[in-house]
UniProtKB/TrEMBL annotation:
Keyword set includes Transferase: yes
Superkingdom of source: Bacteria
SUPFAM superfamilies, per the entry: PRTase-like
Annotated Phosphoribosyltransferase domain residues: 179-212
InterPro entries for the chain: ComF/GntX_DNA_util-trans, PRTase-like, PRTase_dom
Molecular function terms, GO-annotated: glycosyltransferase activity
Record-given protein name: Phosphoribosyltransferase family protein
Upper classification of the organism: Bacteria, Bacillati, Actinomycetota, Actinomycetes, Kitasatosporales
Length: 239
């Protein structure tokens, strides 16, 4: 019911830009341009063990931060398209284009059930679906595979430092039994909306590797994409 209500209110209530709050538009041109950037490698410091290769589109600040929060926490579901488009660009940068191997399997990092219930939707899964659709329009075989699930409860990550986040998430994710064989049918790309300490993506990568997937044909292991990363996480001179 709550998800339905969010969908309806997004259609009938007056729109305001998800980036700057300008009236009568869901996203203004200036804020949209913040996501029209060349995806870059991003790496936190310190880097968690097993951290995958990650590409991000923009720093988590200003309009980009506002857009992600509006989509995730305030039900601005119309932003899923532009956020998914940004993810698709990151996927192309990190995993290649059509013809580079098997189909791309976009594996979203799961949200806690209580967070999904509170928000009325799963934001990462939603933008992953938009990214897969954008990739298919460009001729790349891609689909969302909801392979990961939480096998134990975790604490709210807000306010936790890098070490506490790693301890909080250690062993929390697992590949669902029915998804194990599907992982070997394509190139896995882990998907999240935001990179901060890297603990979440490191745990997701551990779970996928524990299920027997070692990164397909890529020599440097699993790939991952996010819309935004902490400004300090962007690599400048290391590639």
């Amino acid at each position: 019911m709550r998800s339905w209500w969010r969908e309806m209110t997004g259609l009938v209530l007056p729109a305001a830009c998800g980036g700057c709050g300008s009236p009568r538009t869901e996203l203004c041109e200036e804020c949209a341009a913040a996501l029209d950037a060349e995806p870059r490698r991003a790496r936190p410091a310190p880097e968690p063990a097993g951290f995958p290769v990650v590409h991000a589109v923009a720093p988590y600040e200003n309009a980009v931060r506002a857009m992600l929060l509006a989509h995730k926490e305030r039900g601005a579901l119309g932003l899923a398209g532009v956020l998914g488009g940004a993810l698709a660009a990151a996927v192309r940068a990190g995993a290649g284009h059509a013809g580079d191997g098997g189909p791309l399997l976009l594996v979203p990092v799961p949200s806690a059930r209580r967070a999904t219930a509170r928000r009325g939707h799963d934001p990462v899964r939603r933008i992953a679906a938009a990214a897969a659709a954008e990739l298919r329009r460009g001729g790349t075989r891609a689909r969302v595979l909801t392979a990961l699930r939480q096998r134990r409860a975790v604490a709210d990550q807000a306010g936790l430092g890098a070490r506490d986040r790693q301890a909080n998430l250690a062993g929390a994710l697992v590949v669902a039994d029915g998804a194990r064989r599907l992982l070997d049918g394509g190139r896995v790309v882990l998907v999240d909306d935001l990179l901060t300490t890297g603990s979440t993506l490191a745990e997701a990568a551990r779970a996928v590797r524990a299920a027997g997937h070692v990164g397909g044909s890529t020599a440097d292991g699993l790939r991952a994409v996010v819309v935004a990363a902490s400004p300090s996480a962007f690599e400048i001179n290391r590639n």
